[in-house]
Design goal:
Layout: H1 3-13, H2 15-23, E1 30-33, E2 46-52, E3 55-62, H3 71-86, E4 89-96, E5 109-112, E6 115-118, E7 120-123, H4 130-133, H5 139-142, H6 150-162, H7 167-181, H8 187-193, H9 196-200, H10 203-233, H11 238-245, H12 249-258, H13 265-273
Parallel strand pairs: 3-4, 4-7
Antiparallel strand pairs: 1-2, 2-3, 5-6
Length: 282
């Protein structure tokens, strides 16, 4: 199951609820931004951009603090590119899902000599579950909130899910709850409180399965292409490999054909420089 896809689904399908929770204000006319930023994106677990009036709310969900690029630098990178393209206020919120003692989750700024950039950090395991329990769209996050009795909290969430009147919404929220609850609870307890057939009928469950299959195909293609490139051109620089890993499965298939004509690393670099960049919000 994919925690990042679940969080992305929630944020993009319930943007008003997320914006009101994080901005603590009424926020009409919210637009989910699906846009390409001109520079190569730094890949994240899950990233979502919401346009709220003359402001962009940048949400990033992380299951762990591990990152190819440091998280604080990544937040600065997104900020500068969003600012360049939209030139408006930007509110950045980095949301950690799993408890950890890593110092990274307590860091709220990037500092480098004369550069300082600040952003918000939410550690879900420290959050009061009350406002999350009060909103159906936020119920999945409530399973990871602060509590002295995790099982009682999960039972509260299950009861709230049962009260959702619209069948499709109840199925999708239930599926999201079960996915994120897997970060904290035993599978057996989750199955006791939630009916598995409801999850399997949900849109988000089917989306997770599809994306899982796509990731498996992409991983196979990546391994094959990287082996071919190394055999043909020698060791690949980490920065170049990162660009290759960011390509979609379609672009990887194109690269598999193009590499047959490569005779040097410069051929590969030129090819990547002329390849359309991935969509940041995908």
């Amino acid at each position: 199951m994919s925690y990042d896809n679940t969080c992305k689904y929630l944020a993009e399908n319930y943007p008003t609820e997320f914006a009101q929770w994080l901005l603590a204000s009424e926020t009409p006319d919210i637009q989910v931004l699906k846009t390409e930023l001109n520079l190569e994106p730094i890949r994240a677990d899950s990233v979502t951009f919401l346009q709220v009036a003359n402001q962009i709310l940048h949400l990033e969900f992380q299951t762990t603090p591990k990152s190819t690029y440091p998280l604080d630098f990544r937040m600065l990178d997104y900020y500068t590119r969003l600012k360049r393209q939209y030139w408006c206020d930007i509110e950045q919120v980095l949301i950690f899902l799993q408890p950890t003692s890593s110092e990274i989750v307590f860091n709220t700024q990037y500092i480098d000599k004369k550069t300082r950039h600040e952003y918000r950090v939410i550690r879900l395991w420290e959050e009061d579950p009350t406002p999350l329990l009060a909103n159906p769209a936020l119920l999945p996050l409530a399973t990871l909130a602060r509590t002295n009795s995790p099982q009682d909290l999960l039972e509260q969430v299950a009861a709230s899910v049962d009260m959702i009147e619209v069948t499709d919404e109840r199925q999708n929220i239930s599926a999201c709850v079960q996915v994120l609850a897997g970060l904290r609870f035993d599978k057996g307890l989750i199955q006791q409180l939630f009916r598995e057939e409801i999850m399997q009928e949900s849109v988000i469950y089917q989306d997770i399965l599809q994306k899982g299959e796509e990731r498996g195909k992409k991983q196979e293609a990546l391994q094959l292409i990287l082996r071919q490139l190394i055999l043909r051109l020698g060791a690949i620089e980490p920065e170049i490999e990162e660009q290759i890993r960011a390509l979609s499965i379609t672009r990887l298939e194109d690269l598999a054909e193009a590499l047959l004509d490569f005779s040097s690393q410069s051929d590969l670099m030129n090819y990547l420089a002329n390849t359309p960049q991935p969509n940041l919000a995908d």
